[in-house]
Specification:
Elements: H1 3-7, H2 9-12, E1 17-19, E2 25-27, H3 29-57, E3 69-77, E4 83-93, E5 96-100, E6 111-114, E7 116-121, E8 127-129, E9 131-132, E10 139-141, E11 146-151, E12 157-160, E13 190-197, E14 203-211
Parallel strand pairs: 9-12
Antiparallel strand pairs: 1-2, 3-4, 4-11, 5-6, 5-10, 6-9, 7-8, 7-13, 11-12, 13-14
Length: 212
């Protein structure tokens, strides 16, 4: 190294150097580019880490926390062993709710569900939107609670706290039984049940099948 570059060794240390005609040295453009690239990468990593932390901690007001819930489904039979209802048992998860919305059926047949959406699909691919029995008080759905889906005289499926609930388009179960007035689930085969929370996050909380 010549004397001119040695005088600048402290300044040029750690950087790629070129020697000028006046025996001075300076960092080359390639060395500067490497430093700028490294700095930009560090800044990018810090920014991304901040965004991920904000999402996880819920600091973005426009982003909703998804609703989480776990259900088990069980067929319910009447005295003749016909499957006349599906039990939805809440195993764990967040609190859900269901109440009567708009769109009442004629003859006291019930109302569209609000805050919760339950869709049944039979083995033939026919979908059915579950309704709420007329006069049903708003439901608070918490872990450990069981709800029931059944069909009465009208071609509509209902959600209720009991298989013998009234004002559901037909008579309830006789003597508190498992559904004297409930119709058998037909056709037999694999049914699909989709449950979505529409009150808080529009999240599908359950998507499963049951053999009936």
């Amino acid at each position: 190294m010549n004397a001119g570059c040695e005088r600048y060794q402290g300044v040029c240390a750690g950087m790629r150097k070129i020697v000028l005609k006046n025996n001075t040295c300076r960092a080359s453009d390639a060395g500067i580019s490497e430093m700028v690239s490294s700095t930009l990468i560090i800044i990018l990593v810090v920014v991304l880490a901040g965004i991920v932390a904000a999402i996880i901690l819920g600091y973005f007001p426009g982003m909703q926390k998804p609703t989480l819930a776990a259900f088990s489904t069980n067929p319910v039979t009447d005295s003749s062993k016909a499957i006349t209802a599906i039990e939805l048992h809440v195993v764990t998860g967040d609190q859900l709710s269901a109440k009567a919305g708009s769109g009442s059926l004629p003859g006291g047949g019930g109302y569209l569900l609000s805050n919760l959406n339950i869709i049944l699909t039979d083995p033939n691919g026919v979908t059915n939107v579950t309704r709420l029995c007329a006069g049903t008080a708003p439901m608070t759905i918490t872990p450990g609670k069981s709800l029931f889906i059944f069909k009465r005289n009208q071609p509509v499926y209902y959600l209720a706290n009991s298989t013998s609930a009234s004002n559901c388009g037909g008579t309830g179960g006789s003597g508190g039984g498992l559904g004297g007035g409930n119709k058998e689930f037909l056709p037999h085969g694999t049914w699909r049940i989709v449950i979505a929370d529409t009150a808080n996050s529009n999240t599908v909380v359950y998507d499963g099948t049951i053999k009936l």
